[in-house]
Each structure stands twice: as structure tokens, then as C-alpha cells.
Amino acid sequence: MKHPTAALALRRPRPGTPQESKGVCRGETYHRLGISLANAVTLLFLLLGQHHFPSTHAFQNGNALARHRSTQCAKLLGWVQDDNGEWVWEEDDPAYLAAEVAARTASRDVPSVGSSTPIDGSEALKYSASATPTLPSGSFRPKQSLGQNFLQDGNTVMKIVRAFGKDASETIKRKADGETMIEGEVPGIRLVELGPGPGALTDPLVQTFGTDVLQCIEIDPRSVEMLSERHPNLRVRYEDVLQTDYPQLAEDEGGPLSVIGNLPYYITSQILFALADASHTGAVRSATVTMQYEVAERIVSPTKCKAYGILSVVFQLYADCTIHFKIPPTVFYPQPKVDSALVGLRFIGPNALRQRLAGVRPADLRRVLTATFQQRRKTVRNGLKKLALEVCAGDKEAAKNMIDSLSPPLPKSILQAQERGDSFAMSQELPKDWASKRPEELSPAQFVELTRLIFGPANGCDDAPFDRKIWRKLKHGTN
Ligand code: SAM
To answer: Is the distance from the beta carbon of residue 148 to the nearest atom of ligand 1 less than 6 Å?
Structure first.
């Protein structure tokens, strides 16, 4: 694992030059408005007060540093001219943030793995601080290419941490009652934060859980460096979350993972699919993650809705899914163009998944879903024609008979689940006219049945371990 060592200070265009209007940082916005940065900061200081403007203290420190620099340097608050005459942003005093967080952390009795009562996530339910997250200084320009929309609202951070506590503690409790797939599992929580960025969620997580049970995965070396400096004991992996080997990570950590993250929206579904695959081995038990509201709607959508599709079938099969709350663009910096949502996925785990599938292979289900939803305006019969022909090795008559056949009787295990009142199993039976329906009319459980009809029951496969990679793209992660 490489650790970046690049210095954080970035070069900026000279204030006032035409290039500057393309910038996205706060200081530049004020310039676009025709207000000098100095006036803008003074104005903001007066309007918002120190508590509501996280960088104020840091600005002052940067200022002080700038004032102490060579008198040849022209000064404009954090901007200084280097020896070659180029304008650079004077780095804020890094000790300021580190000291503040260290003080907050030291004042609490942070739990650790070694303590007698295992940490189970419920600690986060009580989290009540709503301090404004510390946005990075002017040198840390958010990168659109990495989906960097940083949380800047303490209240939203608090709500996310609490919702995470709920998802994590409930799944840990459930697993403690029964299933565990990781040998020698140590009880308690193991958190993984995806894309910590400058640490809006990381800081309260460190405060609540300590660094022993927390790991972060981040692709931006600036964040890795910043967080490693701020929390020296925190494990920050410099890695692409799409390439992470979650089952291996869970094994290394001694048990299943509880995931949290304000996700980079450009790869939301890829990340979710990687987590679904990881749930095959019980490596991930919950994920409490932000995403575009529109994607969240697709995950929880009932049948017969426009939003209903592959995401709905897969995640309603693999997990209990909840939209915790809607999130407006204003709580992010920079603001995205769309609403977001915090979604809780409580994975049901390999044993319960195996029961729901009753012998159907996830890879076959994927083929049925792809075939039908790729042509979602066609009937299921027409959508499945090509796949049926493939399965029947090109025998047209056999393919036609397959699609015209009635669905096989439900397996005993599903009938038993129905007797227990299991709501998933209750919607499993295929209607007689299934072939003339559109894919959005079939429930997730009926897609399982449809797969059995096309591929037949996977005799002897009921107990076989699931493949490691079903939903994740071939190029993502190991097999
Ligand atoms: N957690 C921070 C917050 O809430 O303010 C930042 C969230 S920001 C929406 C997404 C974060 O994911 C960024 O820090 C970005 O660098 C990181 N990221 C983007 N693509 C990534 C990838 N493929 N692997 C790991 N991290 C990634």
C-alpha cells in the first residue's frame, strides 16, 4: 500500500486573473462577486461569527503566518507570493485542527477493542454533537472528478452518525443471535468509512468509537495525509473502494464490517454492488450511506413504479432497505445539483439469502434481470426469448415451451417460510400470466421463481458457497 507524501500546498492562479472565475473555492467565489477576499472574510466574520465559519480561526493563523513572511511578499490574507513571484495559498496552521480534535477526543473515555463490553454500534445512537465540520483550507480544492461534495452541516453529520448506530447495532444484535460466517469472530463492531475526505464523519466516528475499530478507505492522497496527521492512530487505506477485497478485510479484522460513507456519487451503484457481493460471505452486515435521492428511490421502490428495476430487486432480496432521510444540496460544499438521501442497507446475510433463493444461483438471477430490464418496455416473454434460446442450446421449440410452461411448484422451504408469515416468501409465487407482464410488475421473489423456471432448481447447489463476484464488475476487485 502506497502512502502519499506530496505536500498539500497547491498553486493557485493570481487573484484577479481571468482564470480565477473558473475556480470553485470560497475565496474565488467572492472575487467573482467583485468583493476583495479581505472584505469578504471580514463581512462573513461579522455576519456569521466564529462558530459558524469553521475556517475563520485557520484563516487567522494563515494570516499570521503570511504576516511573518518576507516583506517582499505581497499579502492578501492566505495568499502569498513565492520567490518566483507566483501566488500560492499559505497553508493554514495544521496544528490548529489537530489540537482541537485531540482535545475533544482526549476529554472522552473512548472505547477500545480491549474493553470488557464489546462496542456494538449503539454508542452512536446517543451522539449529540452538531459542531460544523471542518472544511479543508483553500489549498484543498474539491475535485469534481472524485465526487467530492463535502458535508458542511453538523446537524446532518449527527443524524448520519445516529442512523449508522441504528443500522450497525441492530445487525450486530441479529448476528449475535445466530449466524456468523467468519471463523473465530470477535464480538463487536468493525467500522469501515468509505471516502472519508477531510473527515466530516471521521471526526465524530473517532470520537465515538476510537481508532481501534475504525478504518477508512480513500483515493485522494491529500485526504489520506490530512487524516493521518489529524488522527495518527487511525488506519487510512490509500485505495480505490471499488478494488477493496471486503471479505479479506473482514477476515483480517476478525468479523463482519459495518460500513458508513458519504459516497462519491459517480460510482454509487458500483460500490453498492461490491457490498452486496461481500454480503455473500457475511463480510458486510450493514451499510449506511448517502447517495442521490433518485438512486435511493430505485433501491426501495415497490413494483409497478418507474423507479423499480435491477437495484430494487437485488437490494430488496439481499437486504432490508430504508431511506433514513432526504438531504438537501445546501448541506454539502460544493452543493450538488440534486437532492440526496441517507440509505440504510441491513444485509440479511448468507444463510437467510440462501433460504430466499432456495437453490437459485445469483449468477442466473443476474442473467434473467439483465435480459428483462434491458428491454423493460417489452413483456417478460419477449425479454427472455434470447436467454431461453441460449439456455436451450438453440432449440427454438424447447425455448418456446419453457416460456409457455407453468411455473414449477414452490419449494418446500419457501412454503414453510410462507407459513411463518415471511413477507418475502409470500410474494414468491409467479402469476399464471407472468409471461405477458412487464418486468416492473414482478416482485423480487417472483424474479427468483422466474430464474428457477428458466434454469431449473440448482440441484445440490443449495449448500455450495456463493460465488465471490456476481454483481460487481469483472474489473472491480478480486474473485
Ligand atoms: N466523507 C467526506 C464528507 O462527507 O465530507 C467526503 C465525501 S465525498 C462525497 C466522497 C469521498 O470519496 C471523497 O473524499 C473522494 O475523494 C472519495 N472517493 C472518490 N472516489 C473514490 C474511490 N474510488 N475510492 C476511494 N475513495 C474515493
So the answer is: yes
The Cβ of residue 80 has, within 10 Å, a number of other Cβ atoms equal to 20
Closest CA to 200 of 168, 161, 167: 161
Class of 359-455 per CATH? Answer: mainly alpha
The band of 405, judged by pLDDT with boundaries at 50, 70 and 90, is: confident
Task: Report the pLDDT value the prediction gives residue 41, as an integer from 0 to 100.
Answer: 42
Domains in the chain: boundaries: 4-89, 102-356, 359-455
If you take atom 19 of ligand 1, which residue's CA is the nearest one?
Answer: 146
Contact indicator for 200, 261 with CB cutoff of 8 Å: no
Q: Which CATH class is domain 102-356?
A: alpha beta
Compute the distance from residue 335 Cα to the ligand 1 centre, in Å. 15
Higher-scoring residue by pLDDT: 268, 115: 268
Nearest-CA residue for ligand 1 atom 17 is: 195
CB neighbour list of residue 366: distance below 8 Å, 6 or more residues apart:
470, 471
Mutate to test the pocket of ligand 1, among 241, 269, 327 (most ligand atoms within 8 A of CB): 241
Per residue, the 3-state secondary structure of 67-80, as one string, reads HHCCCCCCEECCEE
* Model confidence pLDDT, tens digit, residues 231-242: 999 999 999 999
- 22-36, 75-89, 156-170, 330-344, range with the lowest pLDDT: 22-36
- Please tell me the distance from the alpha carbon of residue 225 to that of residue 220, in angstroms, as a whole number: 9
Question: Residue 65: which pLDDT band, with cuts at 50, 70 and 90?
Answer: very low
Mean pLDDT score of the chain, rounded to an integer?
A: 77
448 neighbors 356 (Cβ within 8 angstroms): yes
